[in-house]
Amino acid sequence: MAKQVQQLDRVIIRFAGDSGDGMQLTGDRFTAGTAEFGNDLSTLPNFPAEIRAPAGTLPGVSSFQLHFADHDILTPGDAPNVLVAMNPAALKANLGDLPKGADIIANTDEFTKRNLQKVGYETSPLEDDSLSEWRVHAVPLTSLTVKALENFELSKKDAERSKNMFALGLLSWLYHRPTEHTIKFLEQKFAKKPEIAKANIAAFQAGWNYGETTESFSVSYEVKPARLDPGVYRNISGNQALAYGLIAASVQSKLPLFLGSYPITPASDILHELSKHKRFGIRTFQAEDEIAGVGAALGAAFGGALGVTTTSGPGVALKAETVGLAVTTELPLIVVDVQRAGPSTGMPTKTEQTDLLMAMFGRNGESPVPIVAPMSPSDCFDAAIEAARIAVKYRTPVMLLSDGYLANGSEPWRLPEISELPDISQEFTREPNGADGEFLPFKRDTDTLARPWAIPGTPGLEHRIGGIEKADGTGNISYDPNNHDLMVRTRAAKIAGIDVPPLEVDDPDGDAGVLVIGWGSTYGPIAAAVRRIRRAGGKVAQAHLRHLNPLPANTGEVLKRYDKVLLPEINLGQLAMLLRARYLVDVISYNRVRGLPFKAEELAGVIQDVIDSD
């Protein structure tokens, strides 16, 4: 009997199970198929920090949420329409996020008495009517997988490991996802273990066939491709986009890229990705610690390379002294901080925006650095190029503030044409620049206040380098009070004078009384919330800051144009503090530090409250 196909405009699916159940791989493969199909999408991986959290417990639950649609979307979605729960812990950990009427696909094989007791269930929720407000599909995923693989020479334990591929096949049938991409991926992933490849493919196809033949699913769903601007697209995560942006920056600056890094969650994938691209002249160095990583990157910058170091919050603290050295030597350096929840180790796999003040002030002395923050996973590509442009043009370290949500999340990205990328190349100094034929390493460009960039070994351009204060012009060691005052003010003026575009405001009618401003990864939830308010007839303006130091020149004027300014941040109000101090505007701060991105519905409620308040 032919099954009914129902058209939907969007779907939010969450895969959840033990951290060893392969939920991230399952979500990633479903995302790849969705991207290939042409939907707009946004993802939210969420997993424990422990390498192997206790099996079957709430702290051990790993999940992957995917929002896909036939139109432009901005977030991974507030609440899933479908939850795939591989065990009782996955169900209990995620049930609170499920709206009434949502679908639950539960792996009944794991709802044993022991597993139920681990998470505090006295009876199975699949049998006691406690889930009557949801549509429950009880599927023995594990035993069906083992049955499908009984002709393979695999142990029962090895066969059970493929249950995530069975679930992926079932969901692929349910939402009409293409299968060729997943089959090809499995063949490549297990090319050296063909029997394992065949087993996983068989499990995937068995899941598809189960959906096609079982009476448990009488309806399948179709979400048509989204209408995107013309071009070639691929699905990309923030860390991948940032790595590709750094490669593009190397090409566009005509400088070899050197990455000095120490692995740290959630920044490590940038090191992994860049290490694959030696053909572009990329050199990657996995240092013994954070300090060695940034030191090597600064040394590479001194030698004429585009020096980059990647880290997260704890690593920024360790790198602070060397970043200060880069400030005083005035060499280009990109410091990528993929922020995570702190302090200290904190919650290393969870997202946060709590490093802004550390990026702004976390060094001794007066040592300002530019700060750039991408607003989406794909925007990490452009933000990396912008950070490189500022670094090489103004001879300064630049902080690039991504975060865990952007790093691990993904979305469609239109590959840019090479002609669309900016030329950010700068000339090295080749000749002496003093009136008497000497080289003055701190003689500044009159427009940018940048000092010359002279490569070691260039005849006649030998000069002193180090952390002690330099004399203006000559670069000699100087303890003169007036010279120090001049150099401190000049370095500050150089950063303040960086050319950044004006702050753009989205205010369709120009008569909104409330402005919602944000920075970094809050863009998607804020924009989605603003859309909701406008659809309901409300008037609200939105602005988003990419450059946090220096701020756009018109920032103060924009803030004072509105009766009320709301600033949501995943911290306790760091940017709000800076804006209040600089512009004397009573910014309304809305803050959450839960290790999760904002929900659009949550922010829409906050915005409406601000609009309604007198």
Automatic annotation (TrEMBL):
Pfam families: POR, POR_N. The keyword Oxidoreductase applies. InterPro entries: 2-oxoacid/accept_OxRdtase_asu, Pyruvate:ferred/Flavod_OxRd, Pyrv/ketoisovalerate_OxRed_cat, Pyrv_Fd/Flavodoxin_OxRdtase_N, Pyrv_flavodox_OxRed_cen, THDP-binding, Transketo_C/PFOR_II. Keywords: Oxidoreductase. Residues 20-207 form the Pyruvate/ketoisovalerate oxidoreductase catalytic domain. Residues 258-470 form the Pyruvate flavodoxin/ferredoxin oxidoreductase pyrimidine binding domain. Gene3D superfamilies: 3.40.50.920, 3.40.50.970, Pyruvate-ferredoxin oxidoreductase, PFOR, domain III. It comes from the Bacteria. The keyword Oxidoreductase applies. PANTHER family: 2-OXOGLUTARATE OXIDOREDUCTASE SUBUNIT KORA, PYRUVATE-FLAVODOXIN OXIDOREDUCTASE-RELATED. This is 2-oxoacid:acceptor oxidoreductase subunit alpha. It comes from Nonomuraea purpurea. The lineage of its organism: Bacteria, Bacillati, Actinomycetota, Actinomycetes, Streptosporangiales.
